[in-house]
Write a structure and sequence with these properties.
The protein is α+β, with helices and mostly antiparallel strands and 159 residues long. The protein is built from 6 helices and 10 strands. A 6-stranded antiparallel β-sheet has the order 3-9-10-6-5-7.
């Protein structure tokens, strides 16, 4: 279980969760490195796609197979389902590392996640997540611990 900590940095209020969380920056060519500790979990092939809350999800090859299998079950005559499947697939990028271990974040994914410079890479509950530092802080800006406790209770009761 993670504890959420808010701390002041030179860039303002930053929310961090102890564990596998890293602050990075995109370089001038919109490349970044997945931290070595997280990179080891991904294997040789991994995929980046859109996530909820304004982040990007980084899936292992096996996880992406599961996502694609789920999307293959979309009813072609249900417009909303098909639209979601198309949007996810359109915004999917098979990461390719250069010889220095950097990956390019394509424009469509940078736009979706509002990645400009400062980013947070973290181990999420289901996959690795890439966040704009600003979007990450905004996402957690209005934390209500009673609501969080209720959500944790729901998770415990369903699991």
């Amino acid at each position: 279980m993670y504890a959420i900590i808010f701390s002041n940095s030179k860039r303002g209020l930053v929310c961090v969760m102890p564990g596998k969380n890293y602050s990075h920056q995109l370089d001038a060519k919109n490349r970044m490195r997945i931290p070595a500790k997280l990179r080891a979990e991904l294997g040789d092939k991994y995929t980046i796609t859109i996530g909820t809350g304004g982040c990007l999800y980084v899936y292992t090859e096996e996880q992406m197979k599961d996502v694609r299998a789920l999307l293959e079950n979309v009813n072609a005559y249900r417009g909303d389902e098909l639209k979601v499947a198309r949007f996810i697939l359109y915004n999917t990028w098979e990461a390719e590392e250069d010889n220095q271990g950097r990956i390019l974040i394509p424009e469509n994914l940078r736009k979706y996640a509002k990645l400009e410079k400062n980013i947070i890479v973290m181990q999420g509950p289901n996959c690795i997540e890439i966040w704009s530092e600003e979007v990450f802080n905004e996402y957690f800006n209005d934390i209500n611990f009673d609501v969080l406790a209720d959500a944790v209770d729901k998770i415990k009761n369903n699991g």
